[in-house]
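job 3f2a | input accepted
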Amino acid sequence: MKPAVLLLLAPFAAFAQTKPAALLPPADPQIQKLVDEISAKNLEADIRKLVSFGTRHTLSDTQSPTHGIGAARNYVRDEFLKYSKAGGGRMTVEMDTFTIKPDGKRINKPVLMANVLATLPGTDPTDTRVILVSGHIDSRVTDVMNATADAPGANDDGSGTVLVMELARVLAGQQFPCTLKFVAVQGEEQGLYGSGHLAERAKKEGWNLIAMLNNDIVGNSHGFDPEISDATQVRVFSEGVPANETPDQAKIRRQLSSENDAPSRQLARYIQRAAQLYGHGHKVALEYRPDRFLRGGDHTPFNQQGFAAVRFTEMNEDYTHQHQDLRTEKTRFYGDVIDGVDFTYLRRNAGINLATMAALALAPAAPAQVEVLTANLTNRTELRWQAPAAGPKPSGYVVLVRETSAPQWQQRFPVAGLMADLPISKDNFIFGVVSVDAAGHESVAVLPVVGR
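job 3f2a | predicted structure (452 res):
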């Protein structure tokens, strides 16, 4: 925290009804243990296997046991089944199939696609929350319609796919109150078809999806043009204004000036805090935009359906290794091969994903009906909320505080009941309320709306 912030907040904190706590909640040794079980060796072995299928283009062979998208899907399914058996058989596995008709763009024939989906059900029947982590299994070369050329896709998105697989392996035998889902989606390169199908399914089936973590290009620590090596950070992209915002929601956003506090943005902040607790110094760089310029990802259809969804992407991309025919030009090699993957870096990115999922899953659901009371003209801030309707009962709550110009929360105030009265001006600060259990696991923050 900057000294200037301490000087600004300290006078208020000294007179607060509730005393400020440490900036971060306590770390959970069990979550750290799970993070440390992630294996760079396993990640490398799985990527080598995916690369061995030659191409994983969405329009490639689905019948061969050794070549094409069909063989790759079967491999991921079979590995999920192994993890489930080793973990006691609670995790279910399915090929979520769907047919895409020719679209006049990147689909030139009817294609039966499949998302490979593993589900670890929650242990609390009242806890309907779902947390999803994804990577896309398909690959491509320069010509997006070339379904026969070698397209190793080691980093794009073999890295995201094996990250999902490794998280499923580590977590398959664990028990959480809510449901975790692990998915390798198909059709990303042809138009986000797999994630679009799954997002529509989630909406149709009424999933209480509180977090979607999309991992796309997360295994390379060396960038080109300019040459930059950085194995200490990963970017997390998140939308500000929700893609499906209604006129009523836009009115509330303008009233609160909450363009920087959409559910996806709050999820991104949560991920950054999880990295601070469990990342062994590995950092999350928050990118306050939905994605990179001229690019798209599998979180986008989930945003469009109204879900909190973010994208993990390596800090410095090498575009000579993305969407390229395998070739050498002027001594520089082009192509997405396994030599371009840093498995130690990938393991660290996987750890942040796992820590986020586990911390969210162990925490109570977020508080409901969070309001800031404005009927009285006062420099104080009065907040009230309701307990979550289902799932584990919170042992308490925490009010998070930051300056309106600050990107991240700056102070935490533990609260025992369903109200808080802070001698801090509601006009000068932004507030969020989280549920917390006895072990200190916190939910994602909920921004208050105006109540009277």
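job 3f2a | The chain has two domains: 3-26+367-451, 37-362.
job 3f2a | closed
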